[in-house]
Amino acid sequence: MKSLLSTVLVSFVLLSCNNNTSTKKSSTNEVEKTSVEVIQEKNTSSVDIKPVSHASFVLKSTEHQFFVDPVNAEAFAQFSNPDYILITDIHGDHFNPKSLENLKGNANIIAPQAVYDLMPADLKTRTKVLTNGDTLSLSSSTQIEAIPMYNTTKGRLDKHPKGRGNGYVLSVNDYKIYISGDTEDIKEMRALKNIDLALICMNLPYTMDLNQAADAVLEFKPKKVMPYHYRGRKKGETYYEDVEEFKSIVTKKDNSIEVELLDWYAI
């Protein structure tokens, strides 16, 4: 009888332990599942890029729509009104006051001081000036930082002097988008961290060639890169940087970087 009682007690203890273990495992699994779901939700934050032409595009997040360097109002008429307009530099392929005035809506404009100085009074009232290194919170989930963009090669230095124009890093729910503007492979670009999507210019004699662009991308390692602004001039003739070659260089040396090629010259 004593032996039988001991056996029953042992069985009960084992059963209780198993139930506790099962409960703990179930609880742990729920925690792990929740953690994974949160991480996946965070990592799937994204934006939609719609090329318009050359340096001009529409960037749409879950919260805001941005027009970037919109120099042709008619080409943007197909899109809904923007929440913000980003201007990178003073040149005509980035800044056109008449186009800005003809865009639908009354969106806030973010621009460097040099652009602001060239604006008519009505546009100035809608414009927030950012200089290199400035940051601005657009909402609880969206922030923007102005990044330097400039030339470093002798013979190109006057095209984009340091401090005049802005590149931008836009953070949307921790998803980071880098817009290079007109620049060469500067140290500030190479020092970027945790960029999810990079839009990288490449065109001579104004910015950099595809090899410079690829070398910089391989250093700061964005998760995805889109070449844009790749029409230039050589010997008085229009040419286009070989973006397929750019893609080949980057992916052969680091296949963790996705290169997406879009048509930036449909119009």
TrEMBL record:
InterPro entries xrefs: RibonucZ/Hydroxyglut_hydro (IPR036866), UPF0173_UPF0282_UlaG_hydrolase (IPR050114)
Pfam families the record matches: Lactamase_B_3
Species assigned in the record: Psychroflexus salarius
Protein name from the UniProt record: L-ascorbate metabolism protein UlaG, beta-lactamase superfamily
